[in-house]
Amino acid sequence: TECAAAGVVAALRANDEWLFGLTDADLNRLGARGDGMPPDAAVSTVAHAARLEKVAEALAELGVRLVVAVAPTKLAVHCDLAPEVAPADEDRPGHRLESAARDSDHLHVLDLTRPLRDARVHGPLFHPRDESWNARGAFFAHRALLKAAGVRGLQPLGIDRCELAASRRAVPCALETVPCFAHRDGRLVAGPPAPAATDGPPALEPDAATLRARRMPAGSHLEIDGLPAPRVYERREAPGVPRILLLGDACILPLIPWLGEVASRLVVLRTAEAPLEQIELELPDLVLFVLDEHALTLPPRSGEHVVEGGADEPLDAGVDALPSGPVV
Description:
Helix 2 crosses helix 4 (93-100). It is built from eight helices and 13 strands. A hairpin with a 2-residue loop joins strand 6 and strand 7 (187-191). By secondary structure, it is an alpha/beta fold. The chain has helices at 24-29, 41-62, 74-77, 93-100, 113-118, 135-149, 256-260, 276-282, and strands at residues 8-13, 19-23, 65-71, 109-111, 164-166, 180-184, 187-191, 204-206, 214-216, 230-234, 243-248, 265-270, 286-292. Residues 307-318 have low confidence and may be disordered.
């Protein structure tokens, strides 16, 4: 069984409340399968860096600022809850990719691990029994992303704008559905499935009353057969404010409400690739390409897009809180 997060095949039970996603690379590292890290981990990093270098060069020719960011694993951020199994920073795929990009003339990679570790003082940043970051984690990620981008006119929201409300949606709990391990006597031990959480605080989402961005029609220039289905959000009262194009897997969804508040126009493309045709047609001021760190343990995925949206598309807390604008 595989969790919704890319590559997650098992869970570590740290305590009665918290579960952490584990990949095959984690199981190898911790001795549950084979010995040590799989031999292709470094090869995957090189392949991802080479792919992203080409994207960075193409966007540089267009005059578009690109920031590639790594959405870290929950275990990397909340390593204080399971210090005996958390990987050393130098072994983490996000750290390796950031290091590989340092000598590049065009590619800038931001590993979000340290900014999010610092933000733990504000409360939990991930759902306890799911591998996805929560609305608070996405808020502090958006701040780090925009600071790294350094685009004039794109200012991150202030700390006081992290206004959260209880969500009516169920608390995400995908890690309850995968094989579960515990750490005992210096090794991983297979255990029974984690029991379903019966109580606990509700999921949090951005307070819809504070959000100004509106969901708008995408426009025919972005709707291209075989390419990602665009989602567009606009703040009509913000003329002249730069525009953002956000790329990535499901981890980008909780970023939408926050980034929609700082850009005049936010275009969202669910994709593991950078669709250069759509980027050139939109020609934003900033492209943010957010990669799930779990996926970096695997070879790059070619041509994977979410090309259909709709009511069944999984959305994280807060995205549905953004009202729609007039359909024209």
